[in-house]
Structure to design on (241 residues):
């Protein structure tokens, strides 16, 4: 029997662990802004719980899954398209899964509303760091699979499946994550939006969110004005104008 990965936060946390490099990365950026901090699509709240002491700030993890958030003390169950946060409250916003949130909006109006909501809760000159799927030619990812052995008997495979459609900002692609752990199989199927660098800039600019650069990994030493050509994921840095 294949189980839904979203219903098993203990497995989800092992598949998407929060390492010290990520915490240092977000804490350094957040340190320039103060708090509160929004962790959008915060999953189990793992990043938020480590980021709060590292950045000396209050961190609010928001996710649509109450099951994933049940172990996060400050977790807020909410819709990223209608955030349960007041106007201009957030000094810094982070997200490790923002591309999935975009893809879940199946119409252009909702896709725009996602960035409008981010801009609404950010203070003027508030900053953001969002992990997005990036590729110069997103449609060429169809059929590519990545296999990772996490440790012991836990492994997962991420696969780009069929293309749903091309958009003004990149390509919408069906993806699947299949996790195996001691004979148990967990699966997560969801659309993912893969942006071009220009598309990411244009999408965010709709809400006066200005991109200041890209990082190919959770390391500020990789900061550039454009992502490397072979980059499949990257962190987009920017500011609310």
């Amino acid at each position: 029997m294949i189980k839904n990965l979203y219903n098993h936060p203990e497995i989800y946390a092992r598949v998407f662990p929060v390492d010290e490099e990520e915490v240092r990365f977000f804490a350094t950026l957040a340190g320039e802004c103060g708090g509160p901090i929004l962790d959008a699509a915060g999953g189990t709240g793992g990043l938020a719980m480590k980021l709060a002491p590292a950045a000396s700030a209050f961190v609010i993890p928001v996710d649509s899954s109450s099951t994933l958030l049940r172990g996060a003390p400050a977790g807020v169950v909410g819709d990223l398209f209608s955030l349960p946060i007041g106007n201009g409250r957030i000094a810094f916003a982070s997200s490790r899964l923002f591309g999935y949130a975009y893809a879940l909006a199946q119409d252009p109006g909702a896709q725009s509303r996602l960035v409008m909501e981010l801009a609404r809760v950010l203070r003027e000159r508030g900053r953001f760091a969002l992990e997005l799927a990036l590729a110069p030619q997103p449609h060429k990812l169809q059929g590519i699979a990545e296999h990772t052995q996490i440790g012991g008997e836990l492994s997962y495979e991420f696969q780009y499946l069929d293309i749903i459609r091309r958009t003004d900002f990149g390509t919408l692609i069906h993806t699947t994550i299949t996790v195996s752990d001691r004979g148990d199989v967990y699966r997560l199927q969801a659309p993912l939006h893969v942006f071009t660098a220009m598309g990411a800039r244009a999408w965010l600019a709709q809400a006066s969110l200005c991109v200041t650069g890209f990082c190919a990994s959770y390391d500020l030493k990789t900061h550039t004005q454009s992502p490397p050509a072979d980059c499949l994921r990257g962190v987009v840095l920017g500011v609310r104008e």
Summary: The radius of gyration is 17 Å. The mean pLDDT is 91. The first helix runs from residue 9 to 15. The chain has seven helices and 13 strands.
